[in-house]
Amino acid sequence: MSSMNETISNRICCGVKPGRRLFLLKNLNHFKVIIVGLILTFAAVSVTGVFIYSRVMRESGLEVEAASEYSHYYVVLTDNSRTPFWQSVYTSMKDAAQQQDAYVEILGENLSVNYSLEDKLQIAIDSEVDGIVLEPNGDTEIVALIEEATTQGIPVITVVSDEVLSQRKSFVGINNYDLGQEYGAQVISALKEDTKEIVVLVNGQAEASSDYSCYSQIKELTAQIPGGEDITVSAVVIDPDSSFDAENTIREYFVNADEDPDLVVCLNSVNTECVYQAVVDFNLVGKVQIIGYHFSDRILEAVRMGNIFSTLALDAEQMGQYSIDALTEYNEMGLVSDFFSVDLAVIDHSSVDDFIVNQDQEQEQEAS
Amino acid sequence: MTAKGTGGAMTAVSESHDKKRKKRFVSIRVKLIFVYVVTSILVFSIHLVLYNQVNQTVDKIDQLYVSNISLNELSDSLEAVQGNLFEYLSTKSTDALNDYYRSEQDYVALTDQLTESVTNNEMLLLEKNIRAMSESYLTVADKTIQDKRGQNVEKYKKGYAEAEQSFAYINDYIYTLNNMQFQINSDNYHVLISSLQYLEISSSVVLLTIAAINIFIIVVWTGSVIRPLVRLAQTANEVAAGNMDAKVPGPTANDEIGVVTHAFDDMLLSIRNSIQQVKNSMEMERVMKEKELLMETHLKDAQLRYLQAQINPHFLFNSLNAGAQLAMMEGAERTCLFVEKMADFFRYNIKKDNEITTIEDEVQVVENYIYILNVRFSDEIIYRKKIDKKLLSSLIPGMVLQPIVENAIKHGLRDLERPGKITLTISKENETVLIRVHDNGRGMSPEKIAEVMQCATIPGETGSYSMGIGMTNVISRLRLYYDRVDVFEIRSLGVDKGTEVLVRIPANFESGRALLPGGDRSDSSDSSTGDSDIGDSDIGDSDIGDSSIGDRENKGDSKRV
User: What is the CATH number of the domain that holds B153?
Assistant: First the structure.
């Protein structure tokens, strides 16, 4: 009986045409494919969502990126860290340090207190850094602190201006004589017939500082030219320990001076900017000539317009590179050259365009 | 399609169906559980993912200000060291010294947690510097303590000044670091709060999506379960409306509904087969009914013909009985016997209702008939019989042998110059009773035999060859009764060579009885002359003389008159 029933059911079952059955099976397969597809889509969406969420968190800074470790830690100590020149030097230093497996930072940048150079040097010594790049400001305590650092086994490299009497291991920059000679040459070039009053802005009181050295040479060179005895060369001292003093001192000078100077020589970039701004503000453009130091976009533009006669620029890249090289060499060898000479460029109205082009090209190369 | 072909196809179909049925059986319960489990797993997994994300975010929020707290602890500890240093330098008390060392120990423990690696991370670098400066500070502080204990006033004053300066530097570093951490933590807090809102939105979207997917899956899956049920119900309605050829459309799932659908299909096919069988049975019954009606028609026809040919048999029968009694009273025994034979002959004919009779009764009627004729025609007919007595009880339709004999006499022996002879032989051949009626009369040509046999196959046809009650009727009835063509045969060697009629009936045939109305063997036996001595004796020799039929007829006519 059961076999008969099976036979009967077979007939019924086979009543469905094969083509139709195939179609139905396909439909069934389609259904399964849709279900599996939905689940896979859901899984893909979930995974993508988690991935996007993690990425958003990481980009938000919540996920701390793994920090790179270095074998050496160097600090830069300067009162002029925010000047364009020092920013260029620092950029060069970082690149050079990166190649030497060292990390360099400008000490005090992120601190809540604006420490003096001496404090910074003390902090660097206490922090047991592996090397110090120092721009001395002529303060006498610096020498003692350099000695203490040396005692602690921390090499100190002076840059821009030297502290000859200290135990610094090396100096990177241009020597004061060459710098003074170049300034003197520029002053002489800038002299006009009616130039009577030349002012040199010097930082610090120390007579032995590089600024005074430059001032002295400018004075000497000016006196040596015909008619130079009629030209007055004077120094205006700007206290480096007082914030905003440069800007105030310069403005006060222009306000209080009996006669406006015919030529102002600036020995750092901040002073250059301040003087140029004061000349513009007091409507002295064309009357007061400026010889500046280093460059910024604003200074270069002023040179191009003829408002600044010329500016002397140390090669910041070389300075940064040589500073790190000096520290590395000392740490590795225990000895280092006493002096690394850095190129000095004179940017005046005739060369400013080429200089700008070269700068742009270098920046593009760095970016690439 | 032949039966064999159908069987082969059915086998193939059955095998393919078996293969299909071998597919794993998945019950509806399992399907529903599967749907529930799949949807639950989907919901549960997304819940896990979301829960994990929320947990991570909350943990991060919890950890946010831990760094600030740690730095505050560090700052407090440093202040404790500096305070204790100052206290000791001021008082030189043992307690202050102990406090200093204790606080120094605590501070060292805290600074040990700070990193000492140089990294490019600003805060880590601050940590590193704090640790290094702390070591320098503690060195100076320890030296100051020693100087104090040594009462070296100048040195410990200078040392304290240095320590105080270092303390200020470290405090500033910690403060700076704390500020940085706080700034970052505040930013992170906002990010985390935003991420929580993002999580809320995204989790809502994902949950809505998964809910939609779940609903879709459930609808599709339950649809696949319910759809066959709906199709089955529709098909059942079609069947209820009378469409027995309805089929359940669509694929059959291998579950309970599939089983029910298969059972429904099987039931439908079984019903269709049963209906076909009933139709066949009714068709067969109709054919049988037609056959029976035809038989009955022939019988009625025979009876009608007989009635038309006879005078009032009851009156004649009664008259003959009165004549027999009269002859006996007068002592005319031969007349009495003749009249009795006449009476028996007509009595047998009157019993027209009793169609089934025995061979013995039939033989008796034949003998009575020949006796009457011999009386009428002066023993003109010589009658012989060779009968196996065992066969006398065999059943045979009534009114068969007498018409054959009558036909032999009328057409074979009439006007025959030589003495007519009728020989009746009843014997058994295998399982057949063979009844032979042979005459030595005129014989029959093959054409005439064929004509007679042909007329017998066409009901109601008598043809040009008149045969009294009707040989055709006899032939037709025998053929219908025994359902075989060769039951009746006429043989003749030609003109004046005599004729032989053979009737072959099965020895134990009974199935035909039901087809004859009122057929009853007991009634038939009642009419037989059981007391007559019928055997192998040659009745004709003693009873039938050589006188011509015409003389006898005249003589009979005179007697009858």
Answer: 1.20.1440.210
Euclidean distance between CA atoms B40 and B17, whole angstroms: 36
Asked if residue A91 is part of any domain, the answer here is: yes
Which of the residues B1, B13, B75, B224 would you substitute to probe the A interface, choosing the one with the greatest number of A C-beta atoms within 10 Å? B13
Chain-chain contact of B250 with A9 (C-beta, under 8 angstroms): no
Whether residue A33 is found in the same domain as residue A124: no
Smallest Cβ–Cβ distance between A14 and the set B13, B18, B122 belongs to B13
Q: For B277, what's the count of Cα atoms within 13 Å in the CB-facing half-sphere?
A: 6
Query: How many A/B residue pairs have CB atoms within 8 Å?
Result: 159
Q: Is the dihedral of CA A299, A304, A310, A312 positive or negative?
A: positive
A37 reaches B (C-beta below 8 A): no
Burial B71-92 (b: 16+ CB within 10 A, else e): beebbebbebbbebbbbbbeee
Does A12 contact B262 at a Cβ distance shorter than 8 Å?
Answer: yes
Does residue B145 belong to any structural domain of this protein? yes
Q: List chain A residues with CB under 8 Å of B176.
A: 110-112
Q: Any chain B CB within 8 A of the CB of A48?
A: no
Strand order, beta sheet including A197-203: A232-238, A197-203, A263-266, A289-293, A310-314, A344-348
Which residues span the domain enclosing A257? 176-315
Identify whether A244 is part of a domain.
yes
Cβ-defined contact of A53 to B53 (cutoff 8 Å): yes
| B250 interface with A at CB cutoff 8 Å | yes
Q: Are residues A43 and A122 in the same domain?
A: no
Q: Per-residue pLDDT for chain B (561 aa), expressed as one digit of tens each?
A: 344 444 444 444 445 455 544 567 777 788 778 878 877 887 788 778 778 878 887 887 777 788 888 899 999 999 999 999 999 998 888 899 999 999 999 999 999 999 888 988 888 899 999 999 999 999 999 999 999 988 888 899 999 999 999 999 999 999 999 998 888 888 878 877 877 787 788 778 877 887 887 788 778 877 877 888 888 888 889 888 888 888 777 767 777 888 888 888 888 889 889 999 999 999 999 999 998 898 888 888 777 777 666 556 677 777 888 888 888 888 888 888 888 888 888 778 766 544 688 899 899 989 988 988 888 887 788 999 999 998 988 888 888 888 899 889 888 888 888 888 999 999 998 889 999 999 999 888 888 888 888 766 554 444 444 444 477 788 888 888 888 888 999 999 888 889 999 999 988 765 444 344 333 333 333 333 333 333 333 333 333 333 333 333 333 332 322
Verify whether the Cβ–Cβ distance B169 to A7 is below 8 Å: no
**Interface touch B176/A112, C-beta < 8 Å:** yes
Interchain CB distance below 8 Å, A126 and B166: yes
Q: What is the ipTM of this complex?
A: 0.73
Within this chain, do residues A121 and A32 fall inside the same structural domain, yes or no? no
B485 falls within a domain: yes
A2: closest chain B residue by CA: B266
Q: Which residues of B touch A7 (CB under 8 A)?
A: 10, 13-14
Tally of domains in chain B: 2
The Cα–Cα gap between A159 and B168 comes to 28
Chain B residue numbers with beta carbons less than 8 Å from the beta carbon of A108 are none
Structure tokens, B401: 């042998």
Helices (H), A60-135: 84-99, 117-126
Q: Do B217 and A38 count as a contact with CB atoms less than 8 A apart? A: yes
Domain assignment present for B24:
no
Helices (H), B150-255: 153-240
End residue of a domain, out of B144, B160, B186: B186
- Edge-to-edge strand list for the sheet holding B381-387: B381-387, B420-429, B432-439, B499-506, B488-492
CA distance B125 to chain A (A): 9
Is A56 within 8 Å of B125 when comparing Cβ atoms? Answer: no
